[in-house]
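Field: COMPLEX_INPUT
Field: COMPONENT_COUNT = two
Field: RESIDUE_TOTAL = 544
Field: MODE = joint
Values follow.
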Amino acid sequence: MYSLINGVLEDHISMADRGLAYGDGLFETLRVIDGSPTLLDSHLARLHRGCERLGLDLEQGLLREEALALCKTAGTGDQVLKIIVTRASLGRGYRSNTRQTNRYLDLSLYAADRQTMLVGCAVCLSEVRLALQPLLAGIKHLNRLEQVLAATELPAGYQEGLMQDMQGHMIEGIRSNLFIIEKGHFMTPDLSQSGVSGVMRALILQIQSVEVKQLTLSEVLSADEVFVCNSVFGIYPVTRIDADGQVLARFKVGPVTRTCQDQLAKLTGIGR
Amino acid sequence: MYSLINGVLEDHISMADRGLAYGDGLFETLRVIDGSPTLLDSHLARLHRGCERLGLDLEQGLLREEALALCKTAGTGDQVLKIIVTRASLGRGYRSNTRQTNRYLDLSLYAADRQTMLVGCAVCLSEVRLALQPLLAGIKHLNRLEQVLAATELPAGYQEGLMQDMQGHMIEGIRSNLFIIEKGHFMTPDLSQSGVSGVMRALILQIQSVEVKQLTLSEVLSADEVFVCNSVFGIYPVTRIDADGQVLARFKVGPVTRTCQDQLAKLTGIGR
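Field: COMPLEX_OUTPUT
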């Protein structure tokens, strides 16, 4: 629909951009409902943590204004706002002597999938393992080839893939975070070595008592309830986990997951 | 100087580019001497291997023509040609159903550093460790935040940093490959788990008998000669390896390194 580049209505960027050259930057993807970006300040807070990690400065107030202005053009209905922040380019080479950034914003239509929110989805264990890199873990940087490969290799018919790290720990969905519930007790993987610390995950950590821990595949398979979440689609219950065309486990859409969906709908509007 | 985007004289790309969004692509950086790109076919061959790994198709003949045409505009002297190939964008999300690619070429001036080629340079052990990811190792993809962080943290006064992987194996320089010589015997790190398999490294493997192996820091520190290489600057002898401001080892610019420089100068023109 509309794009803003450093505050200007424009949709092309310089070929010298360091986001393109090296993935030297960060991004956020927000659900926009009736012209209003949900959880904007949480997304800006994560962006700020990413900027600190990569050594970037961000004019956060300005970005916030631009995001709100762009979303106002959306009218009613569902959209997705994508924010990209890249390190300004001052010449060739990995090294850069600047902390200055570019701000790219883009708004596009989104078709909410209420069916999957309701009845859940089958997910598949990805064969792509996440590398361990604590310097980049948790933040939403632009180096996403692992996710691209995992998403591209995902067999047809699956909404989402579950990713393990190189040591076999369960980490996340390709585009979501993972929660399991065992006897009413919430657990979610530790993301200090790999994975993206999602804004919806952070919100669930605020409203529920959740144990953040190293999670094994067998713990996930034996859980009472399993769901994946992100800040665009909310919560998708997981009804089956497959690998190599074999069913590893089946789950019912349980009452704890349903309650959590209701809480998030009240707080964010997603899934209402 | 000049840029070509899919064959057209242009220097701005779509904000929806998957190279920007996810680093979903590859690049090459070539030395251009008097309008002629050095080792072009070796670079195209590596690009082809990268495309196979990422599931991308490339119109290689067309790219070759565009590269030669762009370099012809350069006239005499030294330039650098950068080639970027990204997966075509068909919409939002990690998953893509296309193998089609965009071709971006850019030519810029280069100032050869003959002094460093002659007298060598001090390098510093980087504190940034490379993650182990065999799916991405060896190819020159666009996910380069590890190199950006390493280059940005490199203390002033160092031309290059040496990078280890998470297990402490020596892998490469931030923008170069590493060779050591012990009693006339060449060794270079195995790059099956991390690192970039450089075109200049490949050429040296062709003209010398080189042992490719897991290399420890102590093997590097006790070597007779050490050098780093890439296809833009050629070979820089390493005269000192430091870490945390301490000198770990000193090296003379030895006869084997010198002979190797001479051979490459004859074959490529770099350093002549």
